[in-house]
Amino acid sequence: MSQGAHDARPTPESVTSLLEGLDAADRETIELRLERWSDDLVAALTVLYPEQDVSALALRLVERAVEGFRLRSPELRRLDQRRLLRPDWLQQPDMFGYACYADRFARDLEGVRAHVDYLRDLGVSYLHLMPLLQPREGDNDGGYAVQDYRRVRADLGDIDDLTRLASDLRGQGISLVLDLVLNHVAREHEWAARARAGESRYRDYFHVYPDRVMPDAYERTLPEVFPDFAPGNFTWDDELEAWVWTTFNEWQWDVNWANPDVLVEYADIVLHLANLGVEVLRLDAIAFTWKRLGTNCQNQPEVHAVTQALRTVARIACPALAFKAEAIVGPRDLVQYLGQGPHAGRVSDLAYHNSLMVQVWSMLATGSTGLAKQALSALPPTPPSGTWICYVRCHDDIGWAIDDSDAAAAGLDGYAHRRFLSDWYAGEHSGSWAHGLVFQHNPATGDKRISGTAASLTGLADAQARGDEAALGLGLARLFLAHAMVAGWGGIPVVWSGDELGMPNDPHWAQEPGHEDDNRWAHRERLDWELAAQRHDLDAVPAKVFQGLRHLAAVRAGLPPLHASGPTQVLLGTHDGVLAVLRTHPSGTMVCVYNVTATWQTFDMRHFSDAGIHRPYDALGGHPVFAGPDGVASLSPYAAWWVIDAPAEVPHA
């Protein structure tokens, strides 16, 4: 940091008045946190607003942080202390996630409270409730067009209900995760309404242009996110009498992060949500927040400074709060969201491992690991404090984010392979067992994304509907294998609601008003509690799926090598049908072995001894791993092994 930036730090004298009324212990707490983290705040502000009075802006943000600290409950202050004493809490192997819409899971927030036992039964310690803050009326992008960040959707409950739910979850060892949409607000948000009313302060909260000169200049390099139903990136608004930037939909107005008042507003919102008991904020659409002419306006360097500024404010007021970057970007850009260079350890704690998800589906479709070995090996290592969110699927469609250079290195044509995967998972390719739905096909670019539940994409749902026992067994094996691969990677595995019961695509998805043009609702189905009631009946398919995922959660909780700080190395010297991953950690070593084919495969035992595992034991299966006379082990179709050195009490030949 430059000397000038260092001089912009809030001094003890400048914050004295802010600390009035705090007792001696609280005052010391804030002073120590400022001493530790104010440099990070000033560094971020200097990058974002080089023409501004950084010292004054930093003081405004510190004022918000101190007020947020004052309002923090004793229970949450105790949580802050607990997290500071265990900063790697998100990296522990017992972290196991679940994501859902509150209303589609259990009607409302009180319904979620009533089913916490179900989540604990599965092994959940991390619950992501999809957007539940007040959205605009009508179409609202699944809740991502927020009208009021300080209110809960009326049909779900109110702020008191949310606070009670957060407290109940915390009491059961489950951390609550909510979305914070950073790139845009609904056209009906107060800021936008006041901008349309002519208040210049709020017009400056958005990217507003009197004519098409600048919008056309930007459009030359901007992609379209939803070309089918929201072409272009700008919308004329009659009340505003101007063009406004609308990346996603005409009623989602992009906010102007180059305006420091916007940063201060969002810092207030972050502190408000943290004080309700939210433990992780998913920073939605963060890759889009900073605009630069001549670029695609994604992944700009300032994005990470924005995150660092917000993160620092939270660390001063509520250090138990963690950030998760929703950055579904190319493989080479992913790791930056966990912090690299000057942002290492200063931005998000979590990021989505989109590349792993794509490669899991690619391996299942092809029965080949060549591309996955290339792509996953090419990713730069994560910072020690950074943790992946690993998932088989999420609420969104699956876009085939495969790097052309990775494909070429694996002997594939990137465009052709992406097209193959879309056709395969839409059930349009010969031999496919999948039954997904095509989402947002763009004939001009060939982009063709896929919607569908895990059961539908693995062939399980179709096999069950047909009563085909052989196909059912293969579908179950593929589903378990996919979840084992993400659970064994080392981050936090997150299961999307319904996948733990093997639920198929909702055939009635288009019948709900506002959903008819968006088939992603096919895999956002309401949880079937009649199926959930079968979860302990081992003759029922829902129980086989539920108990399989429950077993994954229980086993990984007892495996120290799955601590997320440990590096993950893909072993390259295996057969094409086998993916092997080495997990190393000071607490121990582990080799995960996966057969991605429907045929038997072999695995050379030397990989275990090379890893320092001399009595190989499959922790998932609960048995030793034996070699044949030729020194190789045999893996059954779609087998998943998590191999460690056998515990002392386990006999071994």
Could you walk me through the main structural features you see in this protein, from its secondary elements to its overall organization?
- This protein has about 650 residues and is of the alpha/beta class.
- The strands form seven sheets. An eight-stranded parallel beta barrel has the order 1-2-5-11-12-13-14-17, surrounded by four helices.
- Strand 8 and strand 9 (about 240-245) form a beta hairpin.
- The longest helix is centred in the N-terminal third of the chain and has 25 residues, at about 25-50.
- The mean pLDDT is about 95.
Number of helices: 25
Which residues sit in consecutive blocks of at least 5 with pLDDT less than 50?
Answer: none
**What structural class should be given to the helix and strand makeup?**
alpha/beta
Largest sheet: 8 strands, parallel, barrel
What value does the Rg take, in angstroms? 25 Å
C-alpha termini separation: 60 Å
Total strands: the figure is 25
What's the helical proportion of residues? 25-40%
Report the β-strand fraction as a percent range: 15-25%
Strand order of the largest sheet: 1-2-5-11-12-13-14-17
Mean pLDDT across all amino acids: 94
How would you sum up the global shape?
globular
